[in-house]
Amino acid sequence: MNKTIDWGAVHEQSPSLADSLSMSLERLVLEGGLRDGDRLPPERDLAVQLGVSRGSLREALRALELRGLLERTPGRGTIVRDATRSAHADVLVSGLALHTDDFMQALEVRACIEPPMAARAAQRATDLDIAQLRRILDDMARDIDAAEFSRLDRLFHRAIAQYTYNPLLVRLLDRVSEILDVTRSQLPINRATRRRALADHRAILDAVASHDPDAASAAAAAHIAGMHES
Question: 0.85 exceeded by the pTM?
Answer without folding.
Answer: no
